[in-house]
Amino acid sequence: MSTLRVALVQLYGRPTKKECIANALAQIRLAKDRGAQLIILPECFNSPYSTAEFGRHAEEIPRGETSLALAKVAAELGVYLVGGTYPEREGTKLYNTCPVFGPKGELLCKYRKMHLFDMDIPGRCTFQESSVLTPGDRLATFSIGALKIGIGICWDKRFAELTACYRQLGCDMMIFPSAFDPYTGPLHWDLLGRSRALDNQMFVALVSPARDPSTEYVAYGYSLLCDPWGRVLCRAKEDQELLVADIDLKLCAETKQQIPVLRQKRSDIYELNVKK
């Protein structure tokens, strides 16, 4: 496999959880019609992005309503499906979780957001995920052929060490379902996506909800896909949009050969260790 067709699905929210799921399924089928082999949904696509709503929309993974619907459509279409994120309940704890389903509908992995979104820019954006959510503590990867892919969620991409850990595990692609805000989005969205791609010589996908000014938390939009040179291959605008792009998997090896910074790291002086 020298190329992979990837779909980034930027979604509007809908009034109910069932309608959110139905909207996602319709776009997943459109992505398959356009030849996508890997389909990626945005952060918190089945729930309002609200600390007051996370608990009301939470479900078990993979036994909940959303998980069953995503597993079924992945098997029906024979695709790899990154299920964006949605609130997960385990016992008394809530997590912001990204599940990944394989082409037989199997749960390949799930990732719980490690770095919770606690930010306070007065008059611009104030949010505190940690008031209701528990942070995850494990990395999550899956493979499509020889391509190994790592998962992070939104705020995680601000921590360069996390993506570097995935690079040490052999990942050539990172996926971050993300709901940035419209203030930090123009400042940092492209910069962070391109930086993580360039630093680690890998593909990076950032997949956002569509922008809806009527919601309590307004997402930035502008989902994008970067290549190992830090170039933006495709970018959405603000509305609901389906992006489909072919990525050339040979680029990872070529970039590492031509600009061998990963081999030149001074492990005799510094190193990064994954603890779990």
From TrEMBL:
Q: Which reaction does it catalyse?
A: 2-oxoglutaramate + H2O = 2-oxoglutarate + NH4(+); 2-oxosuccinamate + H2O = oxaloacetate + NH4(+)
Q: Which Pfam families does the record cross-reference, listed alphabetically? A: CN_hydrolase
**Any single GO CC term annotated in Swiss-Prot or TrEMBL for this entry:** mitochondrion
- Transmembrane domains' residue ranges: none
Q: What class of enzyme is it?
A: hydrolase
Give the keywords, sorted: Hydrolase
Q: Which InterPro entries match?
A: C-N_Hydrolase, C-N_Hydrolase_sf, Nit1/2_C-N_Hydrolase
The CN hydrolase domain is annotated at: 4-249
Asked whether the keyword tRNA processing is assigned, the reply is no
* Any GO BP annotation: asparagine metabolic process
Molecular functions (GO terms): omega-amidase activity
The source's domain of life comes to: Eukaryota
Spell out the CDD domains in the cross-references: nit
Protein name from the UniProt record? omega-amidase
Q: Organism, per UniProt? A: Anopheles stephensi (Indo-Pakistan malaria mosquito)
